[in-house]
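User: Can you help me understand a structure? I only have the sequence.
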Amino acid sequence: MKWALWLPTFLATEESAIGLQHPDWLISPGKMVLEQSIKDTVIWQKAVMDKSVANWGDFQYRYDIAPAASGNDTNLLAADQNFRSLLEQFKTAHPRSGVDACDGGGRWISYDLARLAESGEYTDGGVGPYSGYYTSLIIPPDKVHNVTDFDHTYYNPSSDRTHLALDPTWYRDPGDGPDLEFIRKDWDIYHYLIAKGVAGRGSHVFRPRVTNDDPIWYFQRMDAEGESGIIITKHAKRGPAYFLVSKPLSNTSGDHYEGGTWSMTQIFTTNAATPDTGIYADPIDNEYRYYGVPGETYGPMNFRYQGPRGEESYVTQIGKHGALRTVETAFFGLAFQVGEEPLIISELGQYDPGGRDGFSENSNQGVYSLMLIRASDKNVVASVTLDMSRAPADALGFKYAKLATPIRLEAGPDKPVIILPKGLQPDKNLRGSDLPREDPWTQIWKTTHGGGYQPSGNTARGATLSEPAELSWIGSGQGQP
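Assistant: Let's start by predicting it. Here is the structure, written out as tokens:
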């Protein structure tokens, strides 16, 4: 085991030795950042890094906050080039040391920088099921790392194997016990994938075609020969999926809702439905996007349904309040899957943060359209208008509007999820007559109720976690392969 260190060689105070010796190197008083368009700052940083290797041995150099910084736009290009030169010199002088790239998202986790870095953290706060899905179109997934979500220490078996779609990492201390053991097993699985050529140098990545679920929940890794591979599932698909979202309509100035990067609202619910993640509006195309892990939501949102004891609240407890955000124009909400029994929803609700963190009671006064949306086709299946200034809050702080007619959502299991993997090579032991006529390279796998996959053909053989099998799957269920 070796050091992995955040070493901010580019930061210095005015009172530091280098600040006193070269005050002209500082961007401005009080900034504590070196003007890195000055080439001599690179020479000084390289000396610090060389001394660190001499004292500690080889280590992984992580940078963040202000690499390649300059006090003006004119010198930014020179600062950028100088810092990249620093990384290249460090790697050349110490080939067994590493670089952990971190700062500025896409600016610093670029294809060019991937050449110099062993890995790079490409977002703050995590991107949940999108981890590695689009980034791997540009950068090999083993060159980037990310947390599924900064805000949880526990291991969620239905979603946290998302880490295996990247260079795995874990953000917070999970303590001892089963959570730590789950994480350890995932790291063992990753090492196994590296050994089999399914991850790491030379491996391939595909985004398989999926029906009856969103493709972003599925990630395929293959070896270079197309003979061994896995499909990583990023959630457990057990029932029909829906979004419950709130769209601001009017009089929302001064209103707030909960949930944000690093700080999502955590809810506990009945088993009438399974919460997936929060839902937000993509700022580019206004499409529905997922954020967070199961049990995290924006709003938060809620509904009342007809249970065995009469009308019941789906949310039973707010486990942790998320960050307060100002309501603007975009929608926000919750993704969930219907449970094992039909669900008859009578009212839709939204949390009013009045009374918390110094806010006055009934702080939200706006009018909102609460919509129940079928995830498969994005059709609105039920909607109602909620006037927050008029509706009373329940004991948990939710305000509701009654649907004109209760809506019945059918129970799971839903239609089978069909995944068509890519990049497979035919098993040389099979006869041509055994291969599907329509596509000899494709194997169709269908989900069972438990979240697993059952092959419906024999077109490829694979290095798997438990022989024999053709193409292994990882994720969902109880967190076991």
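Now, to help you interpret it: The longest strand covers residues 398-409. Residues 430-470, 476-481 have pLDDT under 50 and may be disordered. Let me know which part you'd like to focus on.
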